[in-house]
Design goal:
The complex is a heterodimer of chains A (271) and B (87).
Chain A lengths: L2 E6 L7 H13 L5 E5 L7 H5 L9 H5 L5 H4 L1 E2 L6 E4 L12 H14 L2 E5 L6 H8 L3 E6 L3 H14 L4 H4 L5 E9 L1 H6 L5 H8 L3 E6 L2 H9 L3 H4 L4 H13 L15 H5 L6
Parallel strand pairs in A: 1-5, 1-6, 2-4, 2-5, 6-7, 7-8
Antiparallel strand pairs in A: 3-4
Chain B lengths: L1 H7 L4 H19 L1 H18 L7 E7 L4 E7 L5 H6 L1
Antiparallel strand pairs in B: 1-2
Classes of the chains: A alpha/beta (271), B alpha+beta (87).
């Protein structure tokens, strides 16, 4: 039986879709069968970030409404043949998702895949609660910035009350993925530090993704950052996060931390 | 002049941290409002059966840490309360 992960945040634009694609590709490159599912009905973007926008024929809503079979809607990645995408519908709205329909699709996906990674829409409305409903674990994507931290706190509350796990009295595994982190600004005291965010949100850390040009470059070409440039700092951080999700224990490194005077003078490359 | 400002500028992250701590302590309470209010009423009723107390001196708070949610109950009982109840 596959594991269902929801990638969520409350606030928009913090890196949910980027992280879904990057973690999905990282887990798939370990040889496991992975599907990334776009829950953002009406504003889909996971297809674009994955570089599969021209291959979408059927989508999640079609499958739920019985207009297409699940295998017809799944798009196989061109780079990794054990990585799949289930796109969202672009022409419908979030009411097209029914609770029973989502449950059925999730049950089917769990039979075929090792990992089902759900890219949640922003907000705390129906789309977001449906995306988290069937999750076994949650990755809470947060920027070191006040509004993102506040919204993450709200989402953590929902994960503990509105999910099947919570309703059955089980503990929902929640992990913090800190994105767009700039170690230099944090050191200067102009950005919340990792420990500040951890202390406020009180959930275990799964990874720290540095602010980086490589993320935009990857989305420009339509590839998860872990496939576009596997050696880049954000890709390395996502690979580590994926290994932790899979249960490995690794020391946490803060990307771009060791930059001496030389680095400061000769290039703002680090992250 | 600009350089001077750069070096003397106060750090902003501590302010962010403090504002969030205060705000979230409040918001976590408000979101769980129903439960906390119900608990407060019932706890108050149970204690009032045995000791006389001032309803305003009872605080019920919910907080969260890594592993669990913590329910904090703070009841202030006057020194002569038990005597009053017994009487």
């Amino acid at each position: 039986m596959g594991k269902v992960i929801v990638v969520t945040s409350g606030k928009g634009g913090v890196g949910k879709t980027t992280s879904t694609a990057a973690l999905g590709a990282a887990l798939a490159s370990r040889g496991e069968k992975v599907v990334v599912v776009d829950f953002d009905v009406g504003l889909r973007n996971l297809d674009l970030v994955m570089g599969a926008e021209r291959r979408v024929v059927y989508d999640l809503v079609n499958v739920i409404q019985g207009d297409a079979k699940l295998p017809q809607a799944l798009i196989r990645d061109k780079r990794l043949d054990n990585l799949f995408l289930l796109p969202a519908s672009q022409t419908r709205d979030k009411d097209a998702l029914t609770s029973e329909g989502v449950e059925r699709v999730m049950a089917d996906l769990k039979r075929y895949f090792d990992w089902i990674i759900c890219d949640s829409p922003a907000g705390i409305e129906r789309g977001a609660t449906l995306a988290m409903r069937h999750a076994d674990m949650a990755v809470v994507v947060t920027n070191p910035e006040v509004s993102s931290v506040r919204d993450s706190d709200r989402i953590i509350g929902l994960l503990d009350s509105k999910t099947l796990k919570a309703e059955n009295g089980e503990r929902m595994e929640k992990y913090l993925l800190l994105t767009r982190y700039d170690v230099n600004r944090a050191e200067r005291g102009d950005m919340l530090k990792v420990d500040d965010v951890l202390e406020i949100l009180s959930i275990p850390l799964i990874g720290i993704i540095p602010e980086s040009m490589d993320v935009l470059r990857a989305s420009n070409i339509g590839a998860p950052v872990t496939l576009a440039d596997a050696k880049s700092a954000p890709a390395q951080a996502y690979f580590d996060a994926a290994r932790r999700l899979a249960g490995e224990v690794l020391p946490m490194t803060i990307p771009g931390e060791k930059r001496g005077l030389f680095g400061k003078i000769f290039g703002r490359k680090a992250a | 002049m600009n350089m001077f400002r750069l070096f003397n500028r106060p750090k902003s992250a501590p302010a962010a941290r403090e504002r969030l701590q205060v705000l979230l302590a409040h918001e976590r309470m408000v979101v769980g409002t129903d439960l906390v209010a119900v608990l407060r009423e019932e706890i108050l009723a149970v204690i009032a059966k045995h000791v006389q107390l001032d309803a305003d001196r009872v605080t019920v708070k919910m907080d969260r840490d890594e592993h669990c949610t913590i329910l904090e109950i703070d009841v202030e009982i006057p020194l002569n309360a038990s005597a009053q109840a017994a009487a």
